[in-house]
């Protein structure tokens, strides 16, 4: 068994200090570190990396940082930085603050992907494939298939619709994060589907809801109840016969509707406008009595009798 002398131990401690293994860890290129601001210069920032040498946020990198953020920095603040090179000039190791902020955004995106939480982001540009949004110091992309545009526009109409959305703030879900390929994909459709599912669970047959007519088709009208579209069938539009839904409703009309049925599995909601209108038979029972003589107009003759339209219940 060998016995280590005091001189040998001192030599090993000194060697460890020289190699950087005593108090500090050696910075590696591409590594992300939390640095402490030591000095803010006119064109650079000196930071403590927890290494033998301090780091310098190079002037070119500061050009990519928002002026408001730079003005708010103070000595002692902790900021994320990425090591650019192991060896810099004699003043310090070159680091990037802008890439450090981007790294924070990548981590935030991964957290949102895992948790399923939504964010609000502003549309900054559009292209043929979809929309570009601002995600911190990154750009996120919303494919056309994840926009859920209600009118379903195509071609030039689609481009016009997307152009009008630039500057608009959208609620989005993160559906893909690939930092290596710099892919950050977001979806409005995923948020709308989730919200639709939540609203469907809140709807119950027999309730009265307020909505807006979004579209009219031959067999009825679709009414937006605040994220869920329900169908008012042509037979539920009024007590009298309606030849076409456009005869009684227009797109954009606001109205109260009665919830007839909610099919959770098929995600379908049946509504009625007729249930919210006065029943003409109530007027009949109040105004007519057996033996009364009234004027009417024959509307249809069949083998078993004649249908007569009485003016007091004509709509």
Describe this structure in words.
Helix content is 23%, strand content 35%. It contains 7 helices and 17 strands. The strands form 4 sheets. A 5-stranded mixed β-barrel has the order 1-2-3-5-4. Strands 8-7-6-9-10 form a 5-stranded antiparallel beta sheet. Strand 11 (208-217) and strand 12 (220-224) form a beta hairpin. The N and C termini lie far apart (112 Å).
In the predicted model, the low-confidence regions spanning at least 5 consecutive residues are 13-23
Give the class from helix and strand content and strand pairing: alpha+beta
The major β-sheet equals: 5 strands, mixed, barrel
- Cα-atom Rg, whole angstroms? 35 Å
Instruction: Specify the number of helices.
Output: 7
Strand content: 35-45%
Principal-axis shape equals: rod-shaped
Distance between the termini: 112 Å
Strand order of the largest sheet: 1-2-3-5-4
Give the rounded overall mean pLDDT.
Answer: 83
Helix content: 10-25%
Report the order of strands and helices.
Answer: HEEEHHEEHEEEHEEHEEEEEHEE
Number of strands: 17
Quaternary class: single chain
In short:
With 315 residues, the protein is of the alpha+beta class.
Summary tags:
315 residues; alpha+beta; five-stranded mixed barrel; five-stranded antiparallel β-sheet; 7 helices; 17 strands; 23% helix; rod-shaped
Task: Indicate the topology.
Blueprint: H1 6-19, E1 32-40, E2 45-48, E3 55-57, H2 59-62, H3 67-71, E4 78-83, E5 93-96, H4 97-115, E6 118-127, E7 130-135, E8 138-143, H5 155-164, E9 169-178, E10 183-187, H6 189-202, E11 208-217, E12 220-224, E13 229-233, E14 254-263, E15 268-272, H7 280-287, E16 296-302, E17 305-310
Parallel strand pairs: 3-5, 13-15
Antiparallel strand pairs: 1-2, 1-4, 2-3, 4-5, 6-7, 6-9, 7-8, 9-10, 11-12, 11-14, 12-13, 14-15, 16-17
